[in-house]
Amino acid sequence: MKRREMGLTTVEFAVVATALFIMLFAVIEFSRVMYSFAVLSEGTRRAARLATVCPLNDAGVTATVNFSTLPGFSSGNVQVSYLDAAGTPTGTYSDIVYVRVQITGYSIPLSIPFVNPTVTSPAFPVTLPRESLGVTPTATYTCS
Known about the structure:
The protein is of the alpha+beta class. It has helices at 8-51, 59-65, and strands at residues 78-83, 98-103, 107-109, 118-120, 126-129. The strands form two sheets. A three-stranded antiparallel β-sheet has the order 1-2-5. Strands 3-4 form a two-stranded antiparallel ribbon.
């Protein structure tokens, strides 16, 4: 090998390895984002189901979404709305026809070298018809 070309393979490896590692981290982070979306979707579905049978604004509903696997996620990222027949939010017990639970303002930071983007989670809204809302003919129950 000529003396002028001795460092060429090292430079080529550095360029190729950098691109390879960026792609590897991107694939890993994309998988983590998809996992987070699946966890949020399932948690929102469970919380909506629970909100149909729990009293209005019960703290147990928002706690149901988080499976303690998502960093930075809290019950403050969960919005529970009680809707009338037209889909308008209402607080009057007799007017409530639907219950909607959705995610608000949750961002997932990614660890991709030289890029470090942030992905904002979609809302994952789940709307279900109300059921008992924690009230039976004999008593009112809490879900907390």
